[in-house]
Amino acid sequence: MTGARRTGEFDLIERFFKPLSRAAPGAFALGNDGALLTPPEGESVVVTKDLMVAGVHYPENEEPSTVARRLLRVNLSDLAAMGANATAYALGLALPEDVADAWVEAFAAGLAQDQEAFGVALIGGDTVATKGPAVLSLTAFGTVADDACLNRAGAGVGDDIYVSGSIGDAALGLRAVRGALAALAPEDRAALAERFRLPEPRLALGAVLVDVATCAIDISDGLVADLGHLCTESGVAARIAADAVPLSEPAQRAIAAGVAAIGDLVTGGDDYELLFCAAPPARGTVDALGQRLGLAVTRIGTIERGEGVTIADADGRPLTLGRTGYAHF
Length: 329
What we know:
The structure is a single chain. Helix content is 33%, strand content 23%. It is an alpha+beta fold. It has a six-stranded mixed sheet with strand order 6-8-5-9-7-10, with helices on both faces. Strands 1-4-2-3 form a four-stranded mixed sheet. α2 packs parallel to α6 (203-209) and α4 crosses α5. The radius of gyration is 20 Å and the shape is globular. The model has no long low-confidence stretch (mean pLDDT 93).
């Protein structure tokens, strides 16, 4: 990450970031004090922001292109959770003074790669120097039909609880990145590390859930913690079955090897899958949507009266968890 950086702020913007704004007509090629966002008629703008700190949210020696792609993707996941169509983003970088131009160039290349993949463009931001670790901030913008966005407050008693993809891979992947999980095969460690480094924002799923789901949230802090957030906002409780939680084959092998337990996986965080609820009559529709998108969508539990989240074993007994998920403070 370190090296002699001779480029000044405006040269850095000109060389590495202005090219990322060319697809956004309201960005003024990053030459103005702000950008213009004009949503289509009948739609609202959705805004979300996430921060990443070197050494906290990613290893300081991580490839800069991967850091950039992860930063963009975790924000796009928030848009997916609201059923929004991603359109643009703004970027804030606080970089140590010894960060080399080569690091910034690779970081921008990672953004360019995922801009093309997800159809978004850079519309503004700021860059500053810092004496502390790198702090990366991204604000993502999307659009959704007026009064049609998904939110956390719509769960009703009797609703089914669903989750996309698989759970716990990223928590295991972080351990793999840190050199742990020696009991697993190299290919399993690599697959899990990739799930941590490059989460897949479920934008396509979120967009089709707006007419089906009663509420949704993306899983960033952990399945149990984020389901708890959803329950709090909806004024309900949830019960999920531990053996219904979808696990990848590497995660299953980690449990079999004794290096992880189901409690670790449902509280680990960084999955960035969608967790949502739908009324029982929608089961066929939800299954069809998953098949159409080629994405596993699994029913894992039910919304109940009360408060809190219970995760039960195969005999219906509540599991005792040491924590519910990642705590930022």
